[in-house]
Amino acid sequence: MNCSKCGTYNEPNSKVCFKCGNELLNSYENQNIELNGGVNQSSTTIPNLGSNTVNNLGNQINNPNMKELINNNQTINLVAGNTNPPQPETSNETTNSTIPNLGSNTVNNLGNQINNPNMKEPINNNQTINLVAGNTNPPQPETSNTNLKNKKPNFKLLIFILIGVLLISGVVVGSKVFFKKSSDNVENKVNFNENELILAKQNNKYGYINIKGEVVIDFKYDTASEFKGKYAYVQSNSTNSSDKNYYIIDERGNVKLSDEKSIYTNVKPVGNNEWIFDGKLYDSNLKQVSSNNLVVDAENNGDNFLYWKKEKSNEIGVMNLNGKITYTYKGDKKYNKLQVEDSTLQDDFKEQYCLVTISDENYTNSKYGIINCNTGKIIYDYTTSIIENKDNNVFEIHDNTNDNYVYIQNDKILYKSKNNQELDYYKGYIEIEDENKYIDISNGNIVSDDEVSEVAYRNKKQGYSLKQCSDGDVILKSILIKNKEEIVPCKWTSFEFFDSDFDEYLRSKGKEYVVANGNGSFSIIDTKTKQSIYEVKNTSILLTLDSPFISYLSVSETSKSVSEIYNLFTKKKLTVDSKASIVTKFNYVTVSQDNKKKYYNSDMNLIFEGEI
Fold this sequence. Notes:
The chain has 612 residues and is mainly β. The protein contains 7 helices and 46 strands. Strand 43 and strand 44 form a beta hairpin. The N and C termini lie far apart (78 Å).
């Protein structure tokens, strides 16, 4: 075995190094990691992992047998550099090592180090690094050739080294992938892309510009959509007939899909970045995920569940955005059309349910049912009584005598109203009107009005609650609470929360904001510092809370109304005519008036003027 101090090879049964006198470790009992996954308390030893590239480390493993070991916070060292193990300094010449030593750390924390922004460029360039695991001192090179000819292979040690290589490599890259994937999921879900092309119109034709206002795709389309992920759909009138041809294009204007020779002319963006085109479902990379023998469609853009049919049979049903069939209705000659509408959810709902409508060829006869969207289980069997989707797993059933509301959870009707009594979603609760009762969506329990009044607003996903209070004023006010701690005192009458997707994006960037309202004014409050970052003290009406641009109608002391737009990120403000129409996006805002549309970037600079 090699001496951990000077690197000199010693016979397997040696107790001390014959060269430097350092005590040698000569059994697995003396080492830091046992083969069964246990961890002893001594300070040394996962052997050197050798040279590799960061991008290739993940291919070495995710060994399930080492799972226990990963959880034991094994202390290791990572030494990064060129393809050779680090050598002692022998001169002042520059070496090839470019990634700094990562130092001593625990296995569970390696992902944080490898995700360091300063490491991004070397990682992207497949920088070769060395991972050296063991005690807190990097291994030293051998300084003598003594006994080199007498070295014998230690097969147990080789097996041990291989396990160490697989363990550490998997943890390092696994951590890196985990953190990146988590962030990517947020970005993909909310679809916020600061470099996304912007739909614009000029000379009665549509095209696309970038955030600098430069034309990227010429103005040549009769109809066009905003980009959904990497693609958008456009339409151009045919030069030979009155037919309209639809296309899906990429960010360079290249046609990726065309329906010029298709049977169905349906093109719709659905979900986050999925597409329906020519009766087929495509994922965000335009890979077809539905079967060729099915025709797929959606009732509304943004649906999470679609309906499908087989042309040569009476089968119809429901499909998710991955192309998986979740429900099949074996139709008959009378009922062969299906429509599906999934319940829009807020906060912490456990399941999602769908309203399914089965109709005949001409939609003159229909029947309605409610299913679990994911499993296809029928919760409310088909009836000719019309059912309406009221969102948040509340459905309204119109029978011949009374309109009944039902609230569904855990695959059962948790509550059914009586005598035309309505059910409505109320900020964390399903409200039972006229009974002063509420259903707690987190556990299904029915609570009284008195209990709810103690926490007038509860947003479980964002972690806030409000408690009503009074500071002696006639107007009842609220205290903002997070994790039982008062964030904002008894000062404001109400609070507004950002759209859930945008709030999730803010949190991914380490920001948490709420908007406090009172006496015609509002304040944007950083709940981490408990300080206001922006406040409007005159009469204001808040309009938007779904992007960095906060737009509102402001009435000054002179009673002149104007619209103001404030950017949370850049702290810039724009004032426009109160009669103008304002649309806020993630990285730009449009102001439309008198058939003109102006485009402003995040710094509130005008970048383009087009048509409405």
